[in-house]
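tool_log.txt
---
The assistant was asked to compare two proteins side by side. It first ran the structure predictor on the initial sequence, then on the second. Raw inputs and outputs are pasted verbatim so the downstream comparison step can read them without reformatting.
(1)
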Amino acid sequence: MRSSNLDFATNPHDLNALDDQAAWLTQAGEQGWLLVDTALIAFDRVQAIAFGYGAEIFNTLSDSSLSVYRSKAPHLLQLPPVRHATQALLEELGDIDRLAPAMSWFCSVSSAQALCADLAWLAQAVVEDDVKVYARFADTRVLPDLLQSMSVSQRARIARHMAEWRYFNRSGHVCSVQLADTPAPDRAVMTQTGILFDRVQTDRLIAAAEADSMFALLLSNTPELVPADDRAAFHARLAEDLERASAYKVTVARDRFQFLVLSLSCGRDFDKSRSLNDTWTHVANGASLTDLMQGWPEHTWADLELAGGTHRLASAKV
């Protein structure tokens, strides 16, 4: 079942795994919490299902500078203490859109107010030159890279509330980020309204998001190159192709997109064609791949045609 027209580079969630997750979430001594990105699945559907199970909902950004997001903000659900009720709730929510990277969960003894305060801190990111951005932590395409990019002290602010944060990965399987045994956070981190990312952290997060951005561009411009199934594997291929583009010093976004189109149209070894040796030399010296393609002779296209097949080559000439 789909709740929106959004497309994701993900595979369907394995809802059969939610039995074990419900058992974990209802363990004695801690409260189970579900985090839902209601920018990706409809808030009214989430609210209706939660209401049916008596699960209270909390807007994580309601007391922050990002309160304008309202129903599109990440929402915390306080899960029922009974295993079968939690499992049924998780399954119903997971079935709203099995492709949406919108669900993660954890156990905590912290109050809803304390959790929302530190999740809002995580959302209200500040990067170089004091530029404020919204770190979409509830989107599970972003969550693992976000947590891994954080400093030890930054992770510690979140680890005060939970030892483990679980989610569905791109392949639809349950994964987790371990936060146990993290040292106490620095005083400076605890006094911040929003998390501060340095240039290295920011660049890492931008790089991690690039394959998803290119996936969206491919859907818009060359949808025939995007498979209908196993999009998690397709995302992995895009990430690998982008690494190869970087090795050739293809750095501008439109050229990196063109590199992907060529790879998908003409085969992932298209770049090894002898006809392109001069192209890569010029690119390494700062030339644009897209501009150079306008001057490729017919024999270069003929070589790529042999590699990719005539029925797909037209896609490379976008």
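(2)
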Amino acid sequence: MFPPVFMEGPEATVAIDRLLGGEADARMLEHTVRDRRFAPLLDLLDLLDLLDLLDLWG
């Protein structure tokens, strides 16, 4: 869902530095998605979870 961490590559390009992972990245993402600008995305994810539960029930 989240893009990898990029670094500066040769000749003004970008390259993948590493994939997100570990406790430090998890804390950073948690802090980031708490920003109110992410509220619509979080609402959509909650709705998808609810729809999935309803589908399981019937």
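---
observation on (2): The radius of gyration is 17 Å. The longest helix spans residues 39-57.
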